[in-house]
Design goal:
The structure is a single chain. This protein is of the alpha/beta class. The protein has two domains: 125 residues, 3-Layer(aba) Sandwich (Rossmann fold), CATH 3.40.50.1000; 66 residues, DNA polymerase, domain 1 (Orthogonal Bundle). Helix 1 runs antiparallel to helix 5 and helix 3 packs antiparallel against helix 4. The radius of gyration is 17 Å and the shape is globular. The mean pLDDT is 93.
C-alpha cells in the first residue's frame, strides 16, 4: 500500500480492527424465532430499526421493545442483547500493537457505525481481554455513529471528521471493509483502502 503523502489515517472498527461476523447475529435471531427477512440486517443492507439505533434516534430500550413488537415474541432484554452481540468477535493483540505503533507517526482516528449495545459489549470485552478502558487511547479521536446522529456512507460523517480536525482529504487514508463506505470517502477526495479479507496489519 502506498503511504506517500499520507499524514492521517481513519480506521473503520468492525471488520478492520475488531473481528465480526454478521451471520452469527442472523443465526442467533433465527434461533429466537426472528427470520433474516424480518430483521433485514447485513453488512450491505439494514432495516430502519437498525439504522435508527446506529444513529442514536432510538435508545437501546426502544430498540428492544420494537423487536419484541414486530416479532410477536416475548423475548427478554438479555436474549435480544446476546443475539445482537453475537456478531462481535475478538480484537487481536497484533492490531492493538499496530495502532500503538502508528499513533506517533500519523494522526489516527476511528470512525465506526455502531450502537450503544455493541459499544458496551466490546468495551467490556476489551477490558477483560486486554485490560484496556476503551479504544480511545489507541487513536487521536474516536467517532461513533450513535453519538453523531450520522452513519457511513453519508458523506457528512466523513466531512465532519475532516473539518473538525483540520485534515486535508488528499493527505488522509480511510480503511474500511464496506465498498459503499469506501466510495463515499472517495467522493470527498479521501484516499482509501478497501479491506477484502486481508489482515490490516499486513498493510503496514
Amino acid at each position: 500500500m502506498n503511504l506517500d503523502g499520507i499524514k492521517n489515517i481513519i480506521f473503520d472498527l468492525g471488520g478492520v480492527v475488531l473481528n465480526i461476523d454478521y451471520h452469527l447475529t442472523e443465526e442467533a435471531f433465527y434461533m429466537l424465532g426472528i427470520s433474516k427477512e424480518q430483521i433485514m440486517y447485513s453488512k450491505l443492507e439494514q432495516g430502519g430499526l437498525f439504522d435508527d439505533l446506529e444513529t442514536g434516534r432510538i435508545s437501546p430500550s426502544e430498540f428492544r421493545n420494537e423487536l419484541r413488537e414486530f416479532s410477536f415474541l416475548g423475548l427478554t432484554d438479555l436474549e435480544i442483547d446476546n443475539a445482537w452481540n453475537a456478531l462481535l468477535l475478538d480484537l487481536p493483540k497484533k492490531r492493538i500493537d499496530l495502532l500503538k505503533s502508528l499513533k506517533p507517526k500519523y494522526r489516527t482516528f476511528l470512525l465506526s457505525n455502531t450502537n450503544k449495545i455493541h459499544f458496551n459489549a466490546y468495551s467490556s470485552n476489551l477490558k477483560q481481554e486486554h485490560g484496556m478502558d476503551g479504544l480511545e487511547s489507541l487513536f487521536e479521536k474516536t467517532y461513533y455513529s450513535h453519538n453523531l446522529g450520522l452513519r457511513k456512507p453519508q458523506p457528512e460523517i466523513f466531512k465532519l471528521v475532516l473539518d473538525e480536525n483540520g485534515l486535508k482529504a488528499d493527505e488522509t487514508l480511510f480503511i474500511d471493509d464496506s465498498e459503499q463506505h469506501i466510495k463515499a470517502a472517495q467522493s470527498l477526495g479521501i484516499r482509501t483502502h478497501h479491506i477484502t479479507g486481508e489482515e490490516v496489519v499486513s498493510l503496514f
